[in-house]
Amino acid sequence: MDRRIRKSQEAIIEAFIQLIAEKNFEQITINEIAERANVSRGTVYSHYTDKYDLLDQCIRTHFVKLIDSCLPCGEQALFPTEAALHYTFRYLDEHASFYAAALANQGVPAFRNRLQAVLIRGFDKQMDMGGINKMMDKGILVQFLAVAMTGMIEQLVTRATPYSATELSGQLWALMERNQMVPPSAPLSISTKLF
User: Fold this and answer.
1) Dist CA 147 CA 164 (whole Å)
2) Closest CA to 32 of 53, 51, 10, 49
3) How far apart are CA 82 and CA 181, in angstroms?
4) What is the CATH topology of the domain spanning 1-48?
């Protein structure tokens, strides 16, 4: 990709993320994005159909990077190890500006919904319904854990928790083990097609 095109796209995305952090998504205009990015409206439209397309591409890009961060060394399971969970939380912490803006903005429910959908699918595939989970309804348990994990992610990226990414990932791994959410010996695959 041409360096100028990449630089324009990066400026547009950065401006968009800044605006999402400042105001409701529905109030953001292409003019504001272009002005903040120091590009013309035409440049924005040459890369994105509209602000919804820009949002969708931002979410897709960040989710692919997030998935890559939680699957180190080519592993194929959702949080296959405690180290993978740690990599994920470290990545979220390093990219907190985007994730905090997307999760906190009331106009961007698509982000939270996609995040929870990914977690629900992953937990549903690897949840062991024997042992302590034997008498539980799997759907309720999976939904509860996905919402809880989303909440912990939000706490981390908005800096609303005094705990580091390492401390949170360690505690969450212990909870996943306790609730028989740790993958069985055969890894379970996930796909970026979820996004």
Assistant:
1) 20
2) 51
3) 12
4) Arc Repressor Mutant, subunit A (1.10.10)
Per-residue pLDDT, 146: 87
Query: Which two structure tokens, joined as six digits, stand for 104?
Result: 């906190």
Residue-wise pLDDT for 134-176, tens only, equals 788 888 888 988 888 888 888 888 888 888 888 888 888 888 7
Cα–Cα dist 174/96, whole Å: 24
What is the four-CA torsion angle of 109, 114, 119, 120, rounded to 10 degrees? 90
Is 128 in contact with 134 (CB distance < 8 Å)? no
What is the rounded distance in angstroms from the CA atom of residue 65 to the CA atom of residue 86?
Answer: 15
Domain segments of the chain as ranges:
1-48, 57-194
User: pLDDT averaged over consecutive 10-residue blocks of the chain (195 residues)?
Assistant: 85 91 90 96 94 89 77 56 80 86 75 84 75 81 87 85 86 78 48 43
**C-alpha 18, offset from chain centre:** 17
Q: Burial level of 84, CB count in 10 A (0-12/13-18/19+)?
A: buried
Q: Are 70 and 193 in contact (CB under 8 A)?
A: no
CA distances 95 to 112, 137, 175, Å, are 16, 35, 24
